[in-house]
Amino acid sequence: MPTVAPLDLDDHVVAAAFLGDVPFFASASGAINRLDHGHKVTEAHDGLLACVRDEANDTLITGGEDGKVMRIAADGSVSLVAEVPRKWISIVAAGPQGAVGFAEGRTARVRLADGTIKEFVEARSVEGVAFAPKGLRIGLARYNGASLHWVAMAAQPVDLEWKGAHTGITFSPDGRFVVTSMQENALHGWKLDSKPGGDTRHMRMTGYPAKVKSLSWSAKGKWLASSGAPAAIVWPFSAKDGPMGKPPLELGTRSDVMVTAVACHPAEEVVAIGYSDGMVLAARFADSREVLLRRPGKGAITSIAWSKSGKLIAFASEAGDCGVVDIAG
Question: Which residues belong to any copy of the Anaphase-promoting complex subunit 4-like WD40 domain (predicted)?
Answer without folding.
Answer: 266-327
